[in-house]
Amino acid sequence: MSAKEFYLNRFEIRLSGLGGQGILTLGKIMGQALALEHGFYVTQTQSYGPEARGGASRSDLVISSSPISYPKPENLDVLVALSQEACNLYFRNLKADGLLVVDTFMVEQLPTNNYVGIPFTQLAKEKLKVVQATNVLTLGALCYLLPFLNKNAAAKTLKEVFPAKIIDKNIKALNLGYSKAKQLYPDIPKKWSFS
Amino acid sequence: MVETTKLIHEYLRHSKKFPHVYCPGCGHGIVLGSIIRSVHHLGLSKDEVVLIAGIGCSGRMAVYVDFNTIHTTHGRALTFATGVKLANPKLKVIVVMGDGDALSIGGNHFIHAARRNIGVTALVLNNNIYGMTGGQSSSTTPENSYSTTTPYGHLERDFDVVNLALGCGANFVSRTTALHAQLMDKLLTKAIENPGFNVVEVLTPCFTQYGRKNKFKNVVEMYSWYRKNTIKVEKYKELPEEKRAGKIPIGVFSDKQEPGFEEKYGQLREKLRSKK
Amino acid sequence: MARKPKRKELFALGNEAVVEGALLAGCSFFAGYPITPSTEIAEGMAAKLPQLEEGVFVQMEDEIASLGAVIGASLAGRKAMTATSGPGFSLMQEHIGYACMAEVPLVIVNVMRGGPSTGLPTNPAQGDVQQARWGTHGDHPIIVLSASDVQECLHMTIAAFNFAEKYRTPVILLLDEVTAHTREKIVLPRPEELTIINRTIPTMPPEWYVPYEETMRGVPPMPPLGSGYRYHVTGLTHDEHGYPTSKANEISALMHRLFRKIDQFFYDIQLVEEVETEDAEVVVVAYGCVARSAKLAITQARESGCKAGLLVLKTLFPFPRTYVEKLARQCKKVIVPEMNMGQISREVKRVNNGLSRVVTINRVDGQIITPGEILKKIYKD
Which SS3 state, helix, strand or coil, does residue A163 take? Predict the structure, then answer.
């Protein structure tokens, strides 16, 4: 699967949550996989400074088959919220028919009934025994949910970015996220329509 | 004497329009002579010496002498020197600063150059005053003395260059006066050779701007004052505490041979490259 | 499945692209002081330079010292640079003047953040444009460049080094927080694809060398310290030997040569990008991250049949007046969006001189100007 097979015109994703959840790393890896492995045009921007530590953390991706002018998202196609605060704050930036992906372990009050909910943090804690794997679990789920992001490409990028000793754990997290999403939402990838 | 003059002429820039800017009796010329004698004594070529000066009377020194010379901005001579030495560690870098240069506006650069132990020789020509701008107080102007900006007497305390340099960890720390020319030659020769950051403070009289305002009848009286009030550091240390007041120790206060920053950086590069 | 990259590709920040560009340009010396949002440049240099045969990274005690060390290294023959942001850029003004006067090639990257003073450390702005031009005291020419995306950060860093070396002048590369902190794919050019300019070194016997000699090009050759060409470097106004002077004819000769060496190569230094300007009735003049907003705005305007075009300024100074004048003659309206109260629009208005209508969009709230804001002005009457 490459950029040639999928025509994306400014597909906008926001990854959001709390500082420490690995949102910025998630954005970087996902952006790198889409840009270098799939060959899409990608711009990735993120929150910086004090707001990136402890408070709300945010990483935005704009993905396109043609060069991207404006680098920041305007209307989100996908919002990933790993905290209640992030969900509350950014839901209004989501398109009417956009996809909301939440960590149901962290987000209890949902602004809509139309969402994808997976308990990423809980899975990381209970199945993998490392809460730090939450972000890669989320990446695994996104590889399933987004038809233009391939799991192998994500795995390759993980191997390039992370030190060798933590690769196996992360690949495991990636696979778990993927299979959990597939198990809970078997129909989602078919629903996307790309012009 | 004739020999000395001949030697100095070998190192002066004859294309430069003399006379120089220094007042009669100024000690700066003696320091320049000492730099030349030290470089000559060490057998260095003119090409490998870089003389970097700040701003003020001492800053003008660079232009007269036939080395690679840089007349920098006020107080920043050591920053230029850091760049030069790191870029080409083979060069012998001599930095000439005044007291205003090294300790007031450039105080931060001075303490960090010493802490970093960059391989340069820092000469502080301390005349206790801003000479070129017309006699304003500096950070080495003694308490209670007069200047154009302290017409009612100076209320602040002055810096002790030697103690400051020692506190910042300079390799070689020394003090002399313009009167003690032979000691100056010895200290400078040693400082230029020594690795790391080397400080030579030279007390040099400014009769025009300091002496006249502070009850010195003429410049000879200022040199006499240096003779009377300075004491070899070895003897100073033997003096009982109560007799030390008012005495200025001269000589060598620290003599370490720790490798300079540029040397350590070179080792780091080699280590990284051997790993590849 | 996955494509095989031919040239090395990176998913990098604008700041990281500056590092790659500098190394490709032959930079082997960096002195700096940490400041948001430029820090990734120093961090990248700290990791990479000691791996080079003669590379040096040094963290100095402040920005004044940083530029002092860069000047020293450049005089010793290195291609040298520093990177900073607003408050640090203010501190560097003293030595920018020195580098202009002593004709020391070097590159300063200023990642603009909100100001004045400490301002907004993590928010973008474009408030240092006129400071880059006129920040140091005294009359002086200078080259100021900008970049609007990550790949351009790499190429403009190389251009900055090339101009610095070619004209013996400090070159300022103005980035903004958005450009510096956006990650995109960059393609590293192969060394053989690049034009790299190195300063001219004197070849005459040392005794014939006149360090600041008047020549046709106006750019005297520059020997590295210690190479046998002993000369005097000073920030004082000097004669052609480098010795301080106060003679009117010598002062005038120096000042005019300093200006002439940049002015007579005006067209060589003009880097702009024109987008759909041939038939444009409305032209947006933009630079930095705002140029990207403008690009989307004119695409949208064209889709609805409005003849909009865009002039992206990559060279800010010497101001690309010929391009602006040509477009001002042709169009009904020039729109200048920028994240300050009107620093480039001042230049545009000066050049426009009544030819067209100049409309400004000014934003100083730490947020990037959006395509929508520009589009609104394109459509308005």
Answer: coil
Q: Which residues share a beta bridge with B51?
A: B69, B94
**Would you state the torsion angle of the CA atoms of residues C89, C91, C95, C101, taken in this order, to the nearest 10 degrees?**
80
Shortest distance between the Cα of B12 and any Cα of chain C, in A, equals: 12
Structure tokens at B183: 């000691």
CA distances from C329 to C101, C267, C282, C353, C357 (A): 37, 20, 11, 10, 10
Are residues C15 and C128 both part of a single domain? yes
Domain around C302: 272-379
Among candidate residues C145, C173, C193, the one where a domain is terminated: C193
In a domain, C262, yes or no: no
Q: Could you tell me the CATH number of the domain that includes residue C317?
A: 3.40.50.920
A87-112 pLDDT, tens digit each: 999 999 999 999 999 999 999 999 99
Structural domain includes residue C258: no
| Three-point CA angle A90, A95, A100, nearest 5° | 60
Which residues on chain A are in Cβ contact (under 8 Å) with C3?
Answer: 2, 37, 39
For residues C69 and C175, state if they share a domain: yes
- Tokens standing for C42? 């120093």
A72/C2 Cβ within 8 A: no
Report pLDDT for B14: 84
Look at residue C227 and tell me if it is in a domain.
no
Q: Please indicate whether chains B and A are in contact, defined as at least 3 beta carbon pairs under 8 Å.
A: no
C287 CB burial (10 A radius; 0-12, 13-18, 19+) = buried
Whole-model pTM?
0.96
Residues C22 and C140 in one domain: yes
Sorted by where each starts, the structural domains of chain B and their CATH numbers stand as 2-11+26-275 (3.40.50.970)
In a domain, C232, yes or no: no
Q: Which regions of chain B are under pLDDT 50?
A: none
- The ipTM (two decimal places) reads 0.97
In chain A, which ranges are E strands?
11-18, 41-46, 56-64, 76-81, 94-103, 116-118
Give B173-186 pLDDT, tens digit per residue. 999 999 999 999 99
The DSSP secondary-structure symbol of C140 reads -
Domain A11-185: which CATH class?
alpha beta
Q: Which phi and psi angles does A117 have, rounded to 5°?
A: -120, 125
Q: Residues C290, C178: contact at Cβ < 8 Å? A: no
Among residues C193, C217, C247, which one ends one of the domains?
Answer: C193
Q: How far apart are the C-alpha atoms of C175 and C113, rounded to whole Å?
A: 9
By Cβ distance, the residue of B17, B48, B88 closest to C76 is B88
Q: Is the preceding peptide bond at C37 cis, omega within 30 degrees of 0? A: yes
Is there a contact between C368 and A37 if contact means CB atoms under 8 Å apart?
no
Identify the helix (H) or strand (E) that includes residue C111.
Answer: strand C106-114
A137-188 pLDDT, tens digit per residue, is 999 999 999 999 999 999 999 999 999 999 999 999 999 999 999 999 998 8
- Number of structural domains found in chain C: 2
Question: What is the biggest distance separating any 2 CA atoms in chain C, rounded to whole angstroms?
Answer: 72
**Distance of alpha carbon C179 from its chain centroid, rounded?**
14
The percentage of residues in chain A with a pLDDT greater than 90, rounded to a whole number, is: 86
Give the position of tokens 């003897």. B235
